[in-house]
């Protein structure tokens, strides 16, 4: 059976500092994840015959670096780039709360619809990933999607039928390989493999 795997990028230098957005490289810990990922993925493939996996990343360094050691063809999607935090890009959540308290509160109240000034909302991201989902549905090979927290929440929600209101707070931890397997009844079963 064809599978869909989802993974966030390994820990980035920005993650380490608690900064959102940006385009930083992996931290040492993130780098370790990028080296652990191929073995973990290959262990989940059928062992009888050689199979290929399509690896889809965003255009940001941290996902490209995370996929680096996977021995499969790769495709970069701009539509998989992380939610654009606009004027808050490169800040910590504490800095946002201090500098833009109304923005911080507005987001807390309605994280789904809140749009960062000069940036995006979760609603925007859900729309933006639609072409990727259409291709994922069409693809016959197994696919590993290496992307970002907000974007993967949207992709995961589509396959797992998560109601929109719950999407912005879905658990999407770092260093975890999520495996989705289509079931005969049309739903997906899920397994999570933490690689830390
Ligand atoms: O930088 C963006 C984060 O990955 C998205 O997280 O939507 O929970 O703030 P958040």
TrEMBL record:
Active site: 9, 98
Annotated residues for binding of substrate: 8-15, 62, 109
Signal peptide from the UniProt entry: none
Name used for this protein in its record: 6-phosphofructo-2-kinase domain-containing protein
Protein source organism: Volvox carteri f. nagariensis
